[in-house]
Amino acid sequence: MNQSSVERSLNWLIENYFSSKDRSLTIKKGDCLFNKGDYNDHLYLVKSGQLNGYVDNPDGSRYARFEAGKNKFVGIVSFFSRTYIARANVIAQEDSEVTWITKDVDLIEKDGCDSLFDQFMPVVVTDLAYRQQREQQFFLEKEAAMKQLLHSEKMASLGQMAAALAHELNNAIAVLERNTQWMRENITELLQKRYPQEYPFFQYGNENGRQLSSSEVRARTREIGKKFALAKDDAQKLAQTGMTNDKLKYYVDIMDYEADIVHMYWDIGATFHDMAIAAQHAAHVVRSVRALGAQRHSRQINMDINKSIGEALALLRPKLGVIKLKQQLKDVPPIVGNIGELVQIWTNLIKNAIEAMTHAQVSEPVLSVRSEFAHARINVYIEDNGPGIPAELQEKIFQPNVTTKAEGLSFGLGLGLSIIEKIVDSYNGSIAIKSVPGKTVFKVSLPVENQVK
Fold first, then answer.
1. Which of 6, 57, 61, 397 is the most buried (most CB within 10 A)?
2. Of 451 and 32, the one with more pLDDT
3. Does residue 448 register a pLDDT over 80?
4. pTM listed for this prediction
């Protein structure tokens, strides 16, 4: 379901369920709507202001689980899971007004939907995806604080500091993983039972995610439009799914499904696929931080480098925007490795490249990701046509807290290039950089028969 469809669904829900003045409440700044563990059978909609959900740590500190501004919901999980137990302390950040419905609200018929869950599902999924993105941002903001510690402490103390940070983040990541899995399983079951004919579209997205780059979608749009005699908008929706022509022919020509229907159910599944990857990646990062400088975490045989690159690209695909992505992933042998560590490496390097080109406003930005096998080593090249890195920084780019103010860029994003270098080194690998204005290439080289340090 596209953004405009979600907005239409939200507007309909607001008009039909959240317009009563009798169910309106004003909350002063600093006041609490409800506390974690309270009974709550209300689903709130923020009409104005902002409410934040917090969870307390054992040490008395607290972290933000979500932010809910205008037209955002509060109490989603407790309401739709039917536990009616609040999951966070919800506090007004400014004078705010909310309206609500209760579990006993009368259903208003719409498009054959016979339950509140069916009517709210598109909006709820979008809202939870937004929360997941915000929690990722909270996570990265806390990681950024780690750089201040790295500046004043020797690398020998890095492991202890990282473990403390990971401990603070563990609860948030665990909640993210559990809730994502809960929603994924329940919506899968719901669609299997109530929408068995549309379920295959959802499951395809759920299993495969968003596989195509923006340039690949454009090419497929032209191909599908011509082959099936479809309007550009319909062809684009089908192209985004990544389905083969045979599958599309069956669903569109033989079963006579509209492109909107195919895309909507596929999009829900693809959203859950991306949320699950993001949750898994965040959990891997936390475990990596905890283990950094201390005992290494587990690695498995037959790890596919190209698969880890694909997961990193899937995680960052929304950030690509107008950037043209070129992939040349050749067949490479498996290695002994950890998928979280590898995704962490590629994510940091690719994100650096994306932000370099974005900040420099490159007219025709291109990101190239290549892999090859040569001389018993797997080489991965991540190249961009951004402004380049100044020569005086290249020699120390892998040191902690190395930054540049040029164009507002900050190299060493996420956990920092110094830590990425440490991970690569633990594989007996190497990482190198070559950069001139208009071309920056990071090369990561990993031995196939590595002896893990």
1. 397
2. 32
3. yes
4. 0.41
- Asked if residue 33 has pLDDT above 70, the reply is yes
Residue 99: phi, psi to the nearest 5?
-130, 165
Q: Between 3.40.718.10, 3.40.190.10, 2.40.160.40, 2.60.120.10, what CATH number should domain 3-152 receive? A: 2.60.120.10
Closest to 161 in 3D by CA, of 263, 292, 62, 256: 292
Decide: 444 and 431 in contact? Cβ < 8 Å: yes
* Spatial CB neighbours of 51, under 8 Å, sequence gap ≥ 6: 27, 33, 44, 67, 68, 74, 90, 91, 92, 93, 96, 98
As given in the structure block, the two tokens for residue 258 are 């509209």
What is the residue whose two structure tokens read 């005992």?
295
- At residue 48, the pLDDT reads 95
Q: Which residues contact 21 (CB under 8 A, 6 or more apart)?
A: none
The angle subtended at Cα 117 by Cα 113 and Cα 119, nearest 5°, is: 45
Separation between Cα atoms, residue 82 and residue 182, nearest integer Å: 13
Give whichever of 48-57, 109-118, 277-286, 408-417 has the largest mean pLDDT: 48-57
C-alpha 229/C-alpha 52 separation (Å) is: 49
Q: Which fold has domain 302-447?
A: Heat Shock Protein 90 (3.30.565)
Going from the C-alpha of 64 to that of each of 30, 132, 142, 199, 248, the distances in angstroms are 14, 12, 11, 35, 43
